[in-house]
Design a protein that fits this description.
- By secondary structure, the chain is an all-alpha fold.
- It contains 6 helices and no strands.
- The model has no long low-confidence stretch (mean pLDDT 91).
Protein backbone atom coordinates (compact mmCIF):
# COMPACT_ATOMS: atom_id res chain seq x y z
CA UNK A 1 0.00 0.00 0.00
CA UNK A 2 2.82 2.39 0.78
CA UNK A 3 4.07 2.02 -2.78
CA UNK A 4 0.81 3.61 -3.98
CA UNK A 5 1.96 6.88 -2.39
CA UNK A 6 5.51 6.72 -3.67
CA UNK A 7 6.79 5.62 -0.28
CA UNK A 8 5.59 8.85 1.36
CA UNK A 9 4.49 7.84 4.84
CA UNK A 10 2.51 11.01 5.72
CA UNK A 11 0.54 10.72 2.48
CA UNK A 12 -0.08 7.00 3.08
CA UNK A 13 -1.35 7.76 6.58
CA UNK A 14 -3.77 10.34 5.15
CA UNK A 15 -5.00 7.79 2.61
CA UNK A 16 -5.47 5.18 5.33
CA UNK A 17 -7.43 7.65 7.45
CA UNK A 18 -9.69 8.41 4.52
CA UNK A 19 -10.11 4.66 3.88
CA UNK A 20 -11.01 4.19 7.53
CA UNK A 21 -13.51 7.04 7.54
CA UNK A 22 -15.17 6.44 4.17
CA UNK A 23 -15.06 2.67 3.81
CA UNK A 24 -14.27 0.79 7.01
CA UNK A 25 -16.61 2.72 9.32
CA UNK A 26 -19.51 3.06 6.86
CA UNK A 27 -19.57 -0.12 4.80
CA UNK A 28 -21.81 -2.30 6.99
CA UNK A 29 -24.43 0.38 7.55
CA UNK A 30 -24.50 1.45 3.89
CA UNK A 31 -24.68 -2.17 2.73
CA UNK A 32 -27.48 -3.10 5.13
CA UNK A 33 -29.45 0.00 4.11
CA UNK A 34 -29.18 -0.90 0.42
CA UNK A 35 -30.02 -4.51 1.19
CA UNK A 36 -33.08 -3.41 3.21
CA UNK A 37 -34.21 -1.32 0.24
CA UNK A 38 -33.75 -4.28 -2.10
CA UNK A 39 -31.05 -2.41 -4.01
CA UNK A 40 -28.73 -5.23 -5.05
CA UNK A 41 -26.87 -3.00 -7.53
CA UNK A 42 -25.83 -0.64 -4.73
CA UNK A 43 -24.72 -3.63 -2.66
CA UNK A 44 -22.61 -4.79 -5.60
CA UNK A 45 -21.17 -1.29 -6.08
CA UNK A 46 -20.30 -1.02 -2.39
CA UNK A 47 -18.55 -4.40 -2.39
CA UNK A 48 -16.75 -3.57 -5.66
CA UNK A 49 -15.53 -0.20 -4.37
CA UNK A 50 -14.34 -1.67 -1.09
CA UNK A 51 -12.55 -4.44 -2.98
CA UNK A 52 -10.72 -2.01 -5.25
CA UNK A 53 -9.62 0.43 -2.58
CA UNK A 54 -8.61 -2.34 -0.19
CA UNK A 55 -6.49 -4.15 -2.75
CA UNK A 56 -4.88 -0.89 -3.87
CA UNK A 57 -3.90 -0.14 -0.27
CA UNK A 58 -2.61 -3.65 0.36
CA UNK A 59 -5.46 -4.65 2.67
CA UNK A 60 -5.79 -7.94 0.83
CA UNK A 61 -7.91 -9.87 3.33
CA UNK A 62 -10.65 -7.23 3.09
CA UNK A 63 -10.23 -6.96 -0.68
CA UNK A 64 -10.53 -10.71 -1.13
CA UNK A 65 -13.57 -10.92 1.16
CA UNK A 66 -15.23 -8.03 -0.70
CA UNK A 67 -14.52 -9.79 -4.02
CA UNK A 68 -16.20 -12.93 -2.71
CA UNK A 69 -19.24 -10.92 -1.62
CA UNK A 70 -19.37 -9.15 -4.96
CA UNK A 71 -19.30 -12.47 -6.85
CA UNK A 72 -22.11 -13.89 -4.73
CA UNK A 73 -24.21 -10.79 -5.29
CA UNK A 74 -23.61 -10.83 -9.05
CA UNK A 75 -24.57 -14.51 -9.13
CA UNK A 76 -27.70 -13.78 -7.06
CA UNK A 77 -26.44 -16.30 -4.49
CA UNK A 78 -28.21 -14.93 -1.43
CA UNK A 79 -26.85 -17.51 0.99
CA UNK A 80 -23.34 -16.97 -0.34
CA UNK A 81 -23.79 -13.20 -0.09
CA UNK A 82 -24.88 -13.44 3.55
CA UNK A 83 -21.91 -15.66 4.37
CA UNK A 84 -19.60 -13.38 2.40
CA UNK A 85 -20.95 -10.33 4.20
CA UNK A 86 -20.31 -11.93 7.60
CA UNK A 87 -16.75 -12.85 6.61
CA UNK A 88 -16.16 -9.35 5.29
CA UNK A 89 -17.39 -7.84 8.56
CA UNK A 90 -14.91 -10.03 10.43
CA UNK A 91 -12.06 -8.77 8.24
CA UNK A 92 -13.23 -5.17 8.56
CA UNK A 93 -13.25 -5.50 12.35
CA UNK A 94 -9.61 -6.62 12.29
CA UNK A 95 -8.65 -3.71 10.04
CA UNK A 96 -10.64 -1.23 12.12
CA UNK A 97 -8.75 -2.36 15.20
CA UNK A 98 -5.43 -1.89 13.41
CA UNK A 99 -6.42 1.52 12.07
CA UNK A 100 -7.16 2.76 15.59
CA UNK A 101 -3.42 3.30 15.86
CA UNK A 102 -3.84 6.15 13.37
CA UNK A 103 -5.61 8.12 16.07
CA UNK A 104 -2.24 8.50 17.80
CA UNK A 105 -0.88 10.16 14.68
CA UNK A 106 -3.92 12.43 14.46
CA UNK A 107 -3.37 13.55 18.05
CA UNK A 108 0.29 14.31 17.31
CA UNK A 109 -0.33 15.88 13.90
Amino acid sequence: GLSQTGGKVPMYLRVLKKYRDTHVRCFAQDYRQAEHEGDRMTCIRLAHSLKGVSLMLGVTAVGDAAARLERSLRDADLAGAETGFALLLDELAIVAQSLRALENYEDQG
